From TrEMBL:
Species annotation: Latilactobacillus sakei (Lactobacillus sakei)
SUPFAM superfamilies: lambda repressor-like DNA-binding domains
SMART domains: HTH_XRE (SM00530)
Keyword terms of this UniProt record: DNA-binding
Keyword DNA-binding included in the entry's annotation: yes
GO MF, one annotated term: DNA binding
Stored PANTHER family: DNA-BIDING PHAGE PROTEIN, TRACRIPTIONAL REGULATORY PROTEIN-RELATED-RELATED
Classification via Pfam families: HTH_3 (PF01381)
InterPro entries on file: Cro/C1-type_HTH (IPR001387), Lambda_DNA-bd_dom_sf (IPR010982)
Domain annotation HTH cro/C1-type: ranges: 31-85
Phylogenetic lineage: Bacteria, Bacillati, Bacillota, Bacilli, Lactobacillales
Protein name: Orf1 protein
Length: 87
């Protein structure tokens, strides 16, 4: 049962298991769009994060979701808030 209390919404079990934004598709599209708008290659991003270029490709293709440390590094590199990357 869903109850609403002013601005707080209590979620049931199934709703708690549903990610509202921040899924691989949202993150992937945002990462690619931001990188292209900054005119940075995947190779340069990979070098800055000291990861393989295929890791960046997987992030942008939605095959892998970056961990929080990587999201922080990407937000600094792209000069964007984490919220702009995950939503």
């Amino acid at each position: 049962m869903i109850e609403e209390n002013d601005s707080i919404k209590l979620l049931n079990y199934f709703e708690l298991n549903t990610v509202k934004g921040g899924g691989s598709k949202e993150i992937a599209g945002n990462l690619r769009k931001i990188r292209l708008s900054k005119e940075i290659t995947r190779t340069k991003v990979a070098d800055a994060l000291t990861v393989d270029v295929t890791t960046i490709a997987r992030y942008e293709e939605g095959k892998r979701i970056p961990d929080i440390d990587t999201l922080i590094a990407l937000s600094k590199l792209y000069e964007k808030k984490i919220e702009e990357i995950i939503y």
